[in-house]
Protein backbone atom coordinates (compact mmCIF):
# COMPACT_ATOMS: atom_id res chain seq x y z
CA UNK A 1 0.00 0.00 0.00
CA UNK A 2 2.83 2.37 0.89
CA UNK A 3 4.61 1.73 -2.42
CA UNK A 4 1.40 2.42 -4.38
CA UNK A 5 0.94 5.72 -2.51
CA UNK A 6 4.55 6.68 -3.24
CA UNK A 7 4.10 5.91 -6.95
CA UNK A 8 0.89 7.95 -7.01
CA UNK A 9 2.63 10.93 -5.42
CA UNK A 10 5.51 10.71 -7.92
CA UNK A 11 3.13 10.57 -10.90
CA UNK A 12 1.03 13.37 -9.47
CA UNK A 13 4.12 15.56 -9.04
CA UNK A 14 5.30 14.88 -12.61
CA UNK A 15 1.85 15.61 -14.05
CA UNK A 16 1.50 18.74 -11.94
CA UNK A 17 4.88 20.05 -13.12
CA UNK A 18 4.02 19.41 -16.77
CA UNK A 19 0.60 21.03 -16.48
CA UNK A 20 2.14 24.00 -14.66
CA UNK A 21 4.18 24.85 -17.76
CA UNK A 22 3.17 26.61 -20.89
CA UNK A 23 5.17 26.85 -24.07
CA UNK A 24 5.37 29.91 -26.33
CA UNK A 25 6.96 30.27 -29.76
CA UNK A 26 7.01 33.08 -32.30
CA UNK A 27 5.52 32.20 -35.70
CA UNK A 28 4.89 33.78 -39.08
CA UNK A 29 1.83 32.38 -40.80
CA UNK A 30 1.71 31.69 -44.55
CA UNK A 31 0.68 34.63 -46.74
CA UNK A 32 1.16 37.09 -43.88
CA UNK A 33 3.76 39.79 -43.24
CA UNK A 34 2.97 39.82 -39.53
CA UNK A 35 4.32 37.74 -36.66
CA UNK A 36 2.46 36.32 -33.69
CA UNK A 37 2.82 34.06 -30.66
CA UNK A 38 1.69 30.46 -30.56
CA UNK A 39 0.86 29.30 -27.03
CA UNK A 40 0.87 25.60 -26.27
CA UNK A 41 -0.69 23.93 -23.21
CA UNK A 42 -2.56 27.11 -22.32
CA UNK A 43 -6.20 28.09 -21.95
CA UNK A 44 -5.56 31.63 -23.23
CA UNK A 45 -4.13 32.95 -26.50
CA UNK A 46 -2.43 36.14 -27.68
CA UNK A 47 -4.67 37.11 -30.56
CA UNK A 48 -2.92 40.17 -31.99
CA UNK A 49 -0.41 40.01 -34.86
CA UNK A 50 2.68 42.23 -34.74
CA UNK A 51 5.26 43.71 -37.07
CA UNK A 52 7.84 41.95 -34.91
CA UNK A 53 7.77 39.83 -31.77
CA UNK A 54 10.74 38.55 -29.81
CA UNK A 55 11.11 35.50 -27.58
CA UNK A 56 9.44 35.49 -24.17
CA UNK A 57 11.40 35.22 -20.96
CA UNK A 58 10.87 32.19 -18.73
CA UNK A 59 9.12 34.59 -16.31
CA UNK A 60 6.45 35.25 -18.96
CA UNK A 61 7.31 38.56 -20.67
CA UNK A 62 7.82 39.23 -24.36
CA UNK A 63 8.73 42.18 -26.57
CA UNK A 64 6.61 43.26 -29.54
CA UNK A 65 6.61 45.99 -32.19
CA UNK A 66 3.07 47.07 -32.99
CA UNK A 67 1.53 49.79 -35.14
CA UNK A 68 -1.39 50.07 -32.73
CA UNK A 69 0.79 50.67 -29.66
CA UNK A 70 3.48 52.63 -31.54
CA UNK A 71 6.94 51.41 -30.80
CA UNK A 72 8.31 48.49 -28.84
CA UNK A 73 6.37 47.25 -25.84
CA UNK A 74 6.79 44.58 -23.17
CA UNK A 75 3.74 42.33 -22.83
CA UNK A 76 2.70 39.50 -20.52
CA UNK A 77 1.41 36.09 -21.61
CA UNK A 78 -2.10 37.50 -22.01
CA UNK A 79 -0.82 40.05 -24.52
CA UNK A 80 -1.31 42.94 -22.07
CA UNK A 81 1.29 45.75 -22.24
CA UNK A 82 3.52 46.48 -19.26
CA UNK A 83 3.91 50.13 -18.30
CA UNK A 84 7.41 51.29 -19.22
CA UNK A 85 9.45 53.72 -17.17
CA UNK A 86 11.13 54.99 -20.39
CA UNK A 87 10.54 54.22 -24.08
CA UNK A 88 12.09 50.93 -25.17
CA UNK A 89 14.55 51.08 -28.06
CA UNK A 90 16.30 47.70 -28.24
CA UNK A 91 19.71 47.15 -29.82
CA UNK A 92 19.60 46.06 -33.47
CA UNK A 93 22.57 44.18 -34.88
CA UNK A 94 23.56 46.13 -37.98
CA UNK A 95 25.06 43.07 -39.69
CA UNK A 96 22.27 40.55 -39.12
CA UNK A 97 19.47 43.10 -38.57
CA UNK A 98 18.35 41.03 -35.59
CA UNK A 99 16.77 42.82 -32.64
CA UNK A 100 18.15 41.90 -29.21
CA UNK A 101 15.46 40.86 -26.75
CA UNK A 102 15.61 39.74 -23.13
CA UNK A 103 18.74 38.13 -21.75
CA UNK A 104 18.48 36.83 -18.18
CA UNK A 105 15.47 39.06 -17.50
CA UNK A 106 17.04 42.27 -18.90
CA UNK A 107 16.66 44.04 -22.23
CA UNK A 108 19.13 46.69 -23.34
CA UNK A 109 17.77 50.02 -24.54
CA UNK A 110 19.43 53.02 -26.18
CA UNK A 111 19.01 56.79 -26.27
CA UNK A 112 21.41 59.21 -27.98
CA UNK A 113 24.02 56.42 -28.31
CA UNK A 114 23.97 55.72 -24.56
CA UNK A 115 22.85 52.29 -23.35
CA UNK A 116 21.01 51.07 -20.28
CA UNK A 117 18.64 48.19 -19.51
CA UNK A 118 15.04 47.57 -18.49
CA UNK A 119 13.86 44.61 -16.46
CA UNK A 120 10.78 42.62 -17.44
CA UNK A 121 8.62 44.86 -15.25
CA UNK A 122 9.53 47.84 -17.45
CA UNK A 123 11.79 49.48 -14.86
CA UNK A 124 15.01 51.16 -16.00
CA UNK A 125 17.22 49.53 -13.38
CA UNK A 126 20.40 50.21 -15.38
CA UNK A 127 20.56 53.88 -16.38
CA UNK A 128 21.46 54.87 -19.94
CA UNK A 129 25.04 55.88 -19.15
CA UNK A 130 27.16 53.48 -21.18
CA UNK A 131 28.74 53.84 -24.60
CA UNK A 132 28.73 50.02 -24.74
CA UNK A 133 26.75 47.48 -22.74
CA UNK A 134 26.98 43.70 -23.21
CA UNK A 135 24.05 41.34 -22.84
CA UNK A 136 23.32 40.16 -19.30
CA UNK A 137 24.32 36.69 -18.17
CA UNK A 138 23.26 35.75 -14.69
CA UNK A 139 22.86 39.11 -12.98
CA UNK A 140 25.74 40.94 -14.62
CA UNK A 141 26.88 42.65 -17.81
CA UNK A 142 29.95 44.56 -18.95
CA UNK A 143 29.52 48.31 -19.50
CA UNK A 144 31.88 50.92 -20.89
CA UNK A 145 32.11 54.68 -20.38
CA UNK A 146 34.71 56.27 -22.59
CA UNK A 147 37.68 53.92 -22.20
CA UNK A 148 36.74 52.62 -18.75
CA UNK A 149 35.09 49.25 -18.21
CA UNK A 150 32.57 48.42 -15.49
CA UNK A 151 30.84 45.31 -14.21
CA UNK A 152 27.15 46.29 -14.07
CA UNK A 153 24.57 44.38 -12.03
CA UNK A 154 20.92 44.10 -13.05
CA UNK A 155 20.17 46.60 -10.27
CA UNK A 156 22.54 49.19 -11.75
CA UNK A 157 25.39 48.67 -9.28
CA UNK A 158 28.85 49.28 -10.76
CA UNK A 159 32.28 47.82 -10.17
CA UNK A 160 34.97 49.85 -11.91
CA UNK A 161 37.72 47.79 -13.54
CA UNK A 162 41.18 49.30 -13.45
CA UNK A 163 43.33 46.69 -15.14
CA UNK A 164 45.99 48.43 -17.18
CA UNK A 165 46.10 47.90 -20.95
CA UNK A 166 42.58 46.46 -21.09
CA UNK A 167 41.67 45.97 -24.75
CA UNK A 168 38.40 44.04 -24.53
CA UNK A 169 35.98 42.42 -22.07
CA UNK A 170 33.29 40.02 -23.26
CA UNK A 171 29.97 39.12 -21.65
CA UNK A 172 29.78 36.77 -18.67
CA UNK A 173 29.21 33.04 -18.98
CA UNK A 174 28.88 30.83 -15.90
CA UNK A 175 30.16 33.69 -13.76
CA UNK A 176 33.31 34.43 -15.75
CA UNK A 177 34.03 36.99 -18.48
CA UNK A 178 36.95 36.90 -20.90
CA UNK A 179 39.25 39.92 -20.58
CA UNK A 180 42.00 40.92 -22.98
CA UNK A 181 45.00 42.57 -21.35
CA UNK A 182 47.48 43.73 -23.96
CA UNK A 183 47.54 40.86 -26.46
CA UNK A 184 46.44 38.04 -24.14
CA UNK A 185 43.12 36.80 -22.70
CA UNK A 186 42.24 35.70 -19.19
CA UNK A 187 39.02 35.61 -17.14
CA UNK A 188 37.52 37.78 -14.38
CA UNK A 189 34.63 37.01 -12.04
CA UNK A 190 31.61 39.18 -11.19
CA UNK A 191 33.58 40.88 -8.40
CA UNK A 192 36.19 42.04 -10.88
CA UNK A 193 38.89 39.69 -9.63
CA UNK A 194 41.30 38.07 -12.09
CA UNK A 195 40.53 34.35 -11.80
CA UNK A 196 42.51 33.05 -14.77
CA UNK A 197 45.61 35.01 -15.72
CA UNK A 198 45.80 36.48 -19.25
CA UNK A 199 48.10 34.03 -21.00
CA UNK A 200 45.94 32.89 -23.93
CA UNK A 201 45.91 34.22 -27.49
CA UNK A 202 42.12 33.73 -27.69
CA UNK A 203 39.35 32.05 -25.67
CA UNK A 204 35.73 30.95 -25.87
CA UNK A 205 32.92 31.02 -23.29
CA UNK A 206 32.54 28.58 -20.42
CA UNK A 207 29.93 25.87 -20.82
CA UNK A 208 29.70 23.09 -18.25
CA UNK A 209 32.83 24.47 -16.59
CA UNK A 210 34.92 24.08 -19.75
CA UNK A 211 36.07 26.65 -22.34
CA UNK A 212 38.30 26.42 -25.39
CA UNK A 213 41.52 28.43 -25.33
CA UNK A 214 44.26 29.12 -27.89
CA UNK A 215 47.86 29.22 -26.73
CA UNK A 216 50.50 31.61 -28.04
CA UNK A 217 51.52 29.01 -30.64
CA UNK A 218 48.05 29.20 -32.19
CA UNK A 219 46.87 25.75 -31.04
CA UNK A 220 43.53 25.20 -29.31
CA UNK A 221 42.79 23.09 -26.24
CA UNK A 222 40.24 23.15 -23.41
CA UNK A 223 40.62 24.58 -19.90
CA UNK A 224 38.67 24.39 -16.65
CA UNK A 225 37.80 27.32 -14.37
CA UNK A 226 41.21 27.10 -12.74
CA UNK A 227 42.87 27.71 -16.09
CA UNK A 228 44.20 24.15 -16.21
CA UNK A 229 44.38 22.30 -19.51
CA UNK A 230 41.97 19.36 -19.46
CA UNK A 231 42.58 18.78 -23.18
CA UNK A 232 46.02 19.82 -24.37
CA UNK A 233 46.29 22.54 -27.05
CA UNK A 234 46.89 20.47 -30.16
CA UNK A 235 43.91 21.46 -32.34
CA UNK A 236 43.78 23.87 -35.27
CA UNK A 237 40.26 25.11 -34.47
CA UNK A 238 37.69 24.42 -31.79
CA UNK A 239 34.17 25.31 -30.67
CA UNK A 240 32.27 25.37 -27.39
CA UNK A 241 31.99 22.20 -25.30
CA UNK A 242 28.59 20.52 -24.85
CA UNK A 243 28.22 19.22 -21.32
CA UNK A 244 25.40 16.77 -22.18
CA UNK A 245 27.23 14.87 -24.93
CA UNK A 246 30.65 15.51 -23.40
CA UNK A 247 31.96 16.49 -26.84
CA UNK A 248 33.37 19.56 -28.57
CA UNK A 249 33.80 20.14 -32.30
CA UNK A 250 37.47 20.48 -33.27
CA UNK A 251 39.68 20.52 -36.34
CA UNK A 252 42.98 18.65 -36.69
CA UNK A 253 45.23 17.92 -39.64
CA UNK A 254 42.79 15.06 -40.35
CA UNK A 255 39.90 17.50 -40.70
CA UNK A 256 36.89 18.20 -38.49
CA UNK A 257 35.71 15.83 -35.79
CA UNK A 258 34.80 15.65 -32.11
CA UNK A 259 36.88 15.41 -28.95
CA UNK A 260 35.81 14.37 -25.46
CA UNK A 261 37.41 14.13 -22.00
CA UNK A 262 39.05 10.84 -23.00
CA UNK A 263 41.05 12.85 -25.58
CA UNK A 264 40.00 10.55 -28.41
CA UNK A 265 39.34 12.20 -31.78
CA UNK A 266 36.17 10.84 -33.42
CA UNK A 267 34.37 11.60 -36.67
CA UNK A 268 31.25 9.70 -35.51
CA UNK A 269 30.38 8.78 -39.08
CA UNK A 270 29.39 12.34 -39.99
CA UNK A 271 28.93 12.28 -43.75
CA UNK A 272 29.46 15.84 -45.02
CA UNK A 273 29.07 18.70 -42.57
CA UNK A 274 30.22 18.77 -38.97
CA UNK A 275 27.91 20.57 -36.54
CA UNK A 276 28.48 21.22 -32.84
CA UNK A 277 26.57 19.28 -30.18
CA UNK A 278 23.86 21.06 -28.20
CA UNK A 279 21.87 19.40 -25.42
CA UNK A 280 23.46 16.08 -26.37
CA UNK A 281 22.57 16.01 -30.09
CA UNK A 282 24.26 17.26 -33.27
CA UNK A 283 22.90 17.89 -36.75
CA UNK A 284 24.13 15.47 -39.41
CA UNK A 285 23.46 15.41 -43.14
CA UNK A 286 22.89 12.47 -45.47
CA UNK A 287 21.65 12.41 -49.07
CA UNK A 288 20.78 16.10 -48.92
CA UNK A 289 18.62 15.79 -45.78
CA UNK A 290 19.44 16.52 -42.13
CA UNK A 291 18.68 14.79 -38.86
CA UNK A 292 20.34 14.40 -35.45
CA UNK A 293 22.98 12.03 -34.04
CA UNK A 294 24.03 11.29 -30.46
CA UNK A 295 27.59 11.13 -29.10
CA UNK A 296 28.08 7.63 -30.51
CA UNK A 297 27.24 8.76 -34.05
CA UNK A 298 23.91 6.91 -33.98
CA UNK A 299 20.96 8.46 -35.76
CA UNK A 300 18.51 9.48 -33.03
CA UNK A 301 16.33 11.44 -35.45
CA UNK A 302 16.53 10.23 -39.05
CA UNK A 303 17.65 12.67 -41.79
CA UNK A 304 14.43 13.82 -43.45
CA UNK A 305 14.45 17.60 -42.98
CA UNK A 306 15.57 20.32 -45.39
CA UNK A 307 16.95 22.54 -42.61
CA UNK A 308 17.33 22.10 -38.85
CA UNK A 309 18.44 24.27 -35.96
CA UNK A 310 20.12 23.14 -32.77
CA UNK A 311 18.12 21.89 -29.79
CA UNK A 312 17.14 24.41 -27.14
CA UNK A 313 14.99 23.68 -24.08
CA UNK A 314 14.51 20.16 -25.43
CA UNK A 315 13.10 21.21 -28.82
CA UNK A 316 14.45 22.02 -32.28
CA UNK A 317 13.14 24.02 -35.23
CA UNK A 318 13.07 22.08 -38.52
CA UNK A 319 11.85 22.72 -42.05
CA UNK A 320 10.16 20.14 -44.25
CA UNK A 321 8.37 20.80 -47.56
CA UNK A 322 9.23 24.50 -47.17
CA UNK A 323 7.31 24.80 -43.89
CA UNK A 324 8.68 25.16 -40.36
CA UNK A 325 7.67 23.20 -37.30
CA UNK A 326 9.20 22.02 -34.02
CA UNK A 327 10.23 18.51 -32.95
CA UNK A 328 11.16 17.01 -29.59
CA UNK A 329 14.15 14.74 -28.94
CA UNK A 330 12.19 11.69 -30.10
CA UNK A 331 11.61 13.35 -33.47
CA UNK A 332 7.89 13.74 -32.75
CA UNK A 333 6.12 16.89 -33.87
CA UNK A 334 5.57 19.35 -31.05
CA UNK A 335 4.38 22.03 -33.49
CA UNK A 336 3.19 20.81 -36.90
CA UNK A 337 5.15 22.17 -39.91
CA UNK A 338 2.83 24.81 -41.35
CA UNK A 339 4.61 28.14 -40.74
CA UNK A 340 6.83 30.32 -42.93
CA UNK A 341 9.00 31.15 -39.89
CA UNK A 342 9.17 29.87 -36.33
CA UNK A 343 11.18 30.68 -33.20
CA UNK A 344 12.64 28.60 -30.39
CA UNK A 345 10.39 27.13 -27.70
CA UNK A 346 10.35 29.07 -24.43
CA UNK A 347 9.10 27.21 -21.37
CA UNK A 348 7.20 29.40 -18.93
CA UNK A 349 6.30 28.45 -15.38
CA UNK A 350 2.74 29.38 -14.51
Characterize the structure shown.
This protein is mainly beta and 350 residues long. It is built from 1 helix and 34 strands. Strands 1, 2, 33 and 34 form a 4-stranded antiparallel beta sheet that branches. A 4-stranded antiparallel beta sheet has the order 9-10-11-12, with no helix packed on it. Strand 11 and strand 12 (158-161) form a beta hairpin. The longest helix has 18 residues, at 2-19. The protein is flat, with a radius of gyration of 22 Å.
The total of beta strands comes to: 34
Number of helical runs? 1
* Rg result: 22 Å
Are there runs of 5+ residues with pLDDT below 50, and where?
Answer: 4-18
* End-to-end C-alpha gap: 33 Å
The percent range for strand residues is over 45%
The general outline is flat
- Fraction of residues in helices? under 10%
* Biggest sheet layout: 4 strands, antiparallel
Could you say which structural class the secondary elements and strand pairing correspond to? mainly beta
User: Roughly what is the average pLDDT, rounded to an integer?
Assistant: 90
Amino acid sequence: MKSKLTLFLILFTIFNNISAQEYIVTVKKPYSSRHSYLKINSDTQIEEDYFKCLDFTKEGYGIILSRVRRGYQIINTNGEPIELEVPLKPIVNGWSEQTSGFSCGMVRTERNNKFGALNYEGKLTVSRLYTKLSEFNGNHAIGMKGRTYYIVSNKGEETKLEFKKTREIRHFSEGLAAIKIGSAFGFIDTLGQMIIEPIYYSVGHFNGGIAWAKNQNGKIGYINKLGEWILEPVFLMGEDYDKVSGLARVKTSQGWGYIGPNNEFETLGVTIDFFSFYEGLAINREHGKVGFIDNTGTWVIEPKYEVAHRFKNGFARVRIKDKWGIIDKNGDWFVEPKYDQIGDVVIIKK
